Prior knowledge:
This protein is an alpha/beta fold and 348 residues long. The chain contains eleven helices and 17 strands. The chain has helices at 42-48, 98-101, 151-154, 160-170, 186-197, 212-218, 229-234, 253-256, 280-284, 298-310, 325-333, and strands at residues 2-8, 17-23, 30-39, 65-72, 84-87, 90-92, 113-114, 134-138, 143-144, 178-182, 201-206, 222-225, 239-244, 259-267, 289-292, 317-321, 340-344. The strands form four sheets. Strands 3, 4, 5, 8, 9, 16 and 17 form a seven-stranded mixed sheet that branches.
Amino acid sequence: MIPARAWAAPSATAPLAPWSFERRDVGANDVRIDIRYCGVCHSDLHFARSEWGEAPYPAVPGHEIVGHVAAVGSSVSDLKVGDIVGVGCLVDSCRTCPSCAANQENYCDVGSTGTYMGVEKETGRPTYGGYSNTIVVDRHFVLRIPEGVDLSTTAPLLCAGITTYSPLRHWNCAPGMRVGVVGLGGLGHMAVKLAKAMGAEVTMFTTSPSKTADAARLGATRVVISKDEDAMTAAANSLDLILDTVAAPHNLDPFLNTLYRDGTLVTLGAPAEPHPQHHPFSLIMRRRAIAGSLIGGIAETQEMLDFCAEHKIGADVEVVKMADINTAWERMLRSDVKYRFVIDMSTI
Ligand code: NAP
Ligand code: ZN
Ligand code: ZN
């Protein structure tokens, strides 16, 4: 076993604190990665505070990982020590079901294994995430980071990037498409950048008037303060696709009403409590749809990383020390993040 250090939540209500543990030995198909940066996703907080069901404690969050290869197993021939790589939200899946065969391990029919909130099949222990100095992951779930990119701004692509890229591709985002993004946080700001790079006209819905200028800088051509009923009414029937990234329950009707005929609202935010029931007329009148989307498959994640390198897209990050993580989480809860915290793992 390999000694490892992490910051873990000891319980649902206690702050994160240093913790020492062991990673599994590097198996034939494994890669050990020394973690350089780990992004801070709102899911980390949902998980560690048991908002999605009881977490296994100590709980180590983190699934926006970039670092250097420190060791490879005997069957790994296409990565070598020193290569720069990434790990996102997945570390395992069955590899044989129809979803895995279609490169959609995120929808594995028997359930994929999360980088945290999963069970490691090799050891039977909980998986421990990226708020750690090192991690051991099967080669299949290790991404190549394109040469020359900034590692701190690339880390958030491993979750916030792929979670917004995948639905944009699935719903055929293309030049001229009118895309709305709800919530300007980690996912939201990536959604704006990616939709713009795909040629869409982007409308930002935010509850924070102070973020208006940033939304425009990131690429939105229209900013709507979603608490302003008149502004929401004025935006009726004007969009083809909405990505809703809000991390709290909220009424979907005002957003559904901004969709044109056949438009789709994709829910990405995963709060503990359900959204209030939408009114059937919000869907019926213009054949609108509500959908959901979960991160993306491994091949698509690689495609997204290459797309971002080509288009020079990274996250807007605030790099923090490991010891500042509890403050970063409190700020994230207040929507005070511009627009992703990233932990400098050399400070662990
Ligand atoms: P985040 O950085 O905290 O951003 C969420 C944004 O939502 C906030 O910045 C805020 O934007 C808005 N918001 C938050 N609370 C709100 C409230 N009470 N009412 C209205 N608006 C509110 O979070 P994130 O990391 O982007 O994650 C967003 C959600 O997506 C989380 O629930 C996370 O678990 C989920 N997620 C899902 C997937 C997936 O695969 N589907 C993947 C990753 C994350 P404004 O200030 O602009 O209003
Ligand atoms: Zn995430
Ligand atoms: Zn599968």
